[in-house]
């Protein structure tokens, strides 16, 4: 059978869909006026997105496969893959790091939701390259919110300009996610200075050749700190001290990884390294959660980026690859076989990728719209409502979109068949690169416990009611539209069920505390599929409105509507299996004695 020429598929920024989500879905132009972002005019937003697309397509994306060769580590120094450093220099020269930074520290002051568009494009273009600048937003926001005036004046301007880069130094060899076990110590010295000693592992961009200075945001314990997570403080520890001398922070090694090999993941040794405290003593986790929540949103975007890139490669291949004939009759009788895109199972995989990428895009931009409101709304009530939504939706976005991003990347390999397993074609690299996302910044299990145990149970279900009331209002406003009833009717039923299963699990947990842990992952995925259904229903409504007018681009809106139908009929039913699993109780997990796990 005819085989198309194979090489790593090119990435093209889906500009039409990005604008659809921003303008037609989220009303971003009105939103910017509402929060006082007058400089973010429609023309300016378009110009920024267009230039960002050119940079990602022409500079960052071509380095995708080259980065897979990995970094070089010699004598404590990291050399990034060829072209990576030069691409970052162009990134800085064009002013991209300052896009959403505060004006008073040298930023351009555009809303974070506009920076999120650039984040998505970079995640899709080359996730390994993006890891170097990717953590700076969280570092900047943490210092901006909790840092003192001296820290802000010292660190924010060069971080915002991109002259320095930042890291998040949390875990250690013995503790993993359980940060209450960390041992890194911070000894107080004169002038509010501390000396930190300890080892941190899995530090993304902990050492590299992009910038001379690297600003480490580090969790450590004071000598008199209480045990556990209550005794953790947060510190800023630069690689280069303000006087220009090297600090006592040394890279001991970098990891040899399954994927993202172009991103250096470092082991860092702090040997009486000098730093200063961020925030109050023993409140480090509270401060660090600002950083972690931005990082979790960014990791969610990585799942979306993988889905988009894999979808583009799979779609291009499926249109060219000839194999077998359509079951309903030959589609290309002049060729030896039909293109595989005619086959239902190939379409199942392509539509799954499309539903994940486009639904996830709406989800991610919606999150950042809430961040805009939480940070810049003139209304205290609106800021609090946005904070509540972010508290609920951030763990859902992080876990759901990374799990579905992995699934979408797997489908990309499957569409290619044996050619997807070949390194030269680039599809298997997407699978390897995205796999870490379900572990980073808290595994899917950790996000699920955060959602069900901390957010839902502790709030008495109030956080859930905040979001479901928004969905109820949407359904009520659109239920009279006949073409919307297949979407709104299903959503209304699921909303009632969502509250019922939540109540059931929380009531059971008062009797058996294992209920929360046993139900949590299925509960999060169940919640995630309903959340994504709401966004797809929203997009379906816009598509129906446009199709009902004389607007052009009817094929675009028809595709959006058909993808929404696919999601509701093929993917949303997964909620049923997750519901049955979460309600089955902890017995089928906990009754087996540990000794019986032997092999």
Short key terms for the protein model shown above:
alpha+beta, 55% helix, single chain, disordered N terminus
Overall average pLDDT: 95
Number of strands: 9
Structural class: alpha+beta
Query: Number of helix segments?
Result: 19
The residue ranges in which pLDDT falls below 50 over 5 or more consecutive positions are: 1-5
- The general outline is globular
Taking all Cα atoms into account, the compactness measure Rg is 24 Å
What proportion of the residues is helical, as a percent range?
40-55%
Please outline the major beta sheet: 7 strands, mixed
The termini sit apart by 45 Å
Report the sheet-strand fraction: 5-15%
N-to-C SSE string, H for helix and E for strand: HHHEEHHHHHEEEEEEEHHHHHHHHHHH
Structural overview:
- With 599 residues, the protein is α+β, with helices and mostly antiparallel strands.
- The protein has a domain of 148 residues.
- The chain is 55% helix and 10% strand.
- Strands 3, 4, 5, 6, 7, 8 and 9 form a 7-stranded mixed sheet that branches. A two-stranded antiparallel ribbon has the order 1-2.
- Helix 10 crosses helix 17.
- The chain is globular.
Layout of strands and helices, then pairs:
Blueprint: H1 15-25, H2 28-34, H3 42-60, E1 72-74, E2 77-79, H4 84-93, H5 112-125, H6 127-134, H7 136-146, H8 149-161, E3 165-169, E4 185-188, E5 193-204, E6 214-220, E7 233-238, E8 249-254, E9 265-278, H9 284-320, H10 344-376, H11 380-416, H12 427-434, H13 444-457, H14 462-478, H15 485-509, H16 514-547, H17 554-571, H18 574-582, H19 587-590
Parallel strand pairs: 3-6
Antiparallel strand pairs: 1-2, 4-5, 5-9, 6-7, 7-9, 8-9
Helix pairs in contact: 1-10, 3-5, 5-6, 5-9, 5-10, 7-8, 7-9, 9-10, 9-11, 9-12, 10-11, 10-16, 10-17, 11-12, 11-13, 11-14, 11-16, 13-16, 14-15, 15-16, 16-17, 16-18
């Amino acid at each position: 059978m005819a085989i198309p020429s194979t090489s790593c598929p090119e990435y093209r920024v889906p500009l039409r869909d990005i604008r659809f989500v921003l303008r037609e879905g989220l009303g971003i132009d009105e939103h910017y006026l509402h929060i006082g972002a007058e400089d973010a005019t429609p023309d300016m937003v378009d110009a920024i997105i267009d230039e960002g697309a050119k940079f990602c397509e022409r500079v960052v994306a071509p380095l995708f496969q080259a980065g897979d060769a990995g970094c070089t580590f010699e004598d404590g120094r990291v050399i990034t893959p060829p072209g990576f450093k030069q691409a970052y220099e162009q990134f800085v020269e064009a002013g991209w790091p300052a896009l959403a930074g505060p004006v008073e520290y040298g930023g351009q002051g555009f809303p974070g939701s506009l920076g999120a568009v650039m984040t998505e494009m970079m995640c899709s273009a080359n996730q390994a390259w993006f890891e170097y600048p990717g953590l700076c937003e969280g570092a900047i926001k943490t210092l901006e919110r909790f840092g003192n005036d001296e820290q802000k004046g010292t660190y924010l301007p060069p971080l915002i300009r991109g002259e320095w880069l930042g890291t998040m130094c949390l875990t250690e060899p013995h503790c993993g996610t359980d940060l209450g076990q960390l041992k890194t110590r911070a000894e107080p010295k004169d002038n509010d200075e501390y000396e930190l000693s300890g080892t941190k592992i899995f530090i993304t961009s902990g050492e590299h050749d992009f910038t001379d200075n690297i600003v480490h945001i580090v969790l450590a314990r004071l000598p008199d700190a209480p045990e556990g997570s209550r005794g953790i403080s947060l510190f800023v520890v630069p690689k280069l001290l303000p006087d220009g001398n090297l600090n006592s922070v040394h890279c001991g090694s970098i990891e040899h990884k399954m994927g993202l090999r172009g991103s250096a993941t470092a082991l860092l040794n702090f040997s009486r390294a000098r730093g200063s405290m961020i925030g109050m003593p023993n409140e480090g986790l509270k401060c660090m959660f600002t950083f972690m929540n931005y990082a979790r949103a960014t990791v969610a975007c990585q799942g979306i980026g993988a889905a988009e890139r894999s979808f583009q490669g799979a779609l291009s291949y499926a249109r060219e690859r000839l194999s077998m004939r359509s079951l309903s009759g030959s589609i290309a009788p002049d060729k030896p076989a039909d293109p595989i895109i005619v086959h239902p199972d190939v379409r199942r995989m392509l539509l799954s990728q499309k539903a994940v990428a486009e639904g996830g895009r709406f989800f991610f931009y919606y999150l950042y719209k809430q961040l805009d409101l939480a940070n810049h709304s003139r209304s205290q009530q609106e800021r609090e409502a946005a904070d509540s939504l972010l508290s609920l939706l951030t763990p859902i976005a992080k876990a759901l979109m990374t799990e579905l991003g992995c699934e979408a990347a797997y489908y990309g390999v499957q569409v290619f068949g044996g050619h997807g397993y070949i390194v030269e074609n680039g599809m298997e690299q997407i699978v390897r690169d995205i796999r870490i996302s379900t572990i980073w910044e808290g595994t899917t299990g950790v996000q699920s416990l955060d959602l069900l145990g901390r957010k839902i149970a502790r709030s008495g279900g109030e956080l859930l009611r905040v979001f479901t009331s928004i969905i109820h209002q949407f359904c009520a406003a659109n239920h009279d539209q006949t073409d919307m009833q297949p979407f709104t009717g299903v959503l209304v039923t699921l909303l009632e069920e969502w509250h019922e299963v939540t109540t059931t699990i929380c009531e059971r947990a008062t009797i058996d505390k294992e209920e929360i842990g046993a139900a949590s992952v299925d509960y999060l995925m169940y919640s995630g599929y309903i959340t994504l259904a709401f966004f797809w229903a929203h997009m379906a409504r816009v598509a129906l409105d446009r199709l009902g007018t004389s607007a052009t681009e009817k094929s675009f809106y028809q595709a959006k509507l058909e993808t929404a139908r696919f999601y509701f009929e093929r993917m949303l039913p997964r909620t049923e299996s997750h519901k049955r699993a979460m309600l089955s109780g902890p017995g089928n997990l906990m009754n087996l004695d540990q000794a019986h796990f032997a092999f």
